[in-house]
Design brief:
Layout lengths: L1 E3 L7 E2 L2 E2 L4 E4 L10 E2 L26 E3 L7 E2 L2 E2 L4 E3 L20
Parallel strand pairs: 1-9, 4-6
Antiparallel strand pairs: 2-3, 4-5, 7-8
Length: 106
């Protein structure tokens, strides 16, 4: 499940993300503010109508693409956390947790 606190995102439905796939960016991120939800589309400035939503608001980790390779939940470019939360101010991934190098999974 993805908790979305970005109330002005077109994919936010009652605090949950309805995007079919979520893309979290932050290739060199070492802290949460260096990550962001690339899937975010500002509903206030967007006239886009999108088909990339799902009906039941359930997104599994296999639907979360993650380039934050320093995050402990990143496994081969996918998020393995059971749920994530996107911040409302700057759309950062609040679930980001810096990986200790001895934990790195290949």
């Amino acid at each position: 499940m993805i908790k979305c606190l970005s109330i002005n995102c077109v994919f936010n439905v009652s605090g949950l993300c309805s995007a079919a796939v979520v893309n979290i960016e932050g290739f060199d991120a070492n802290i949460t503010p260096e990550t962001y939800c690339k899937t975010f589309i500002d509903s206030l400035n967007s006239s886009k109508i999108t088909n990339s939503t799902i009906d039941n608001n359930e997104i599994s980790p296999k639907n979360i693409i993650c380039s934050a390779y320093n995050c402990t939940y990143n496994f081969s470019g996918s998020c393995k956390s059971s749920d994530i939360q996107v911040n409302f101010l700057n759309n950062t991934c609040e679930t980001f947790k810096k990986r200790s190098y001895n934990n790195y999974e290949y």
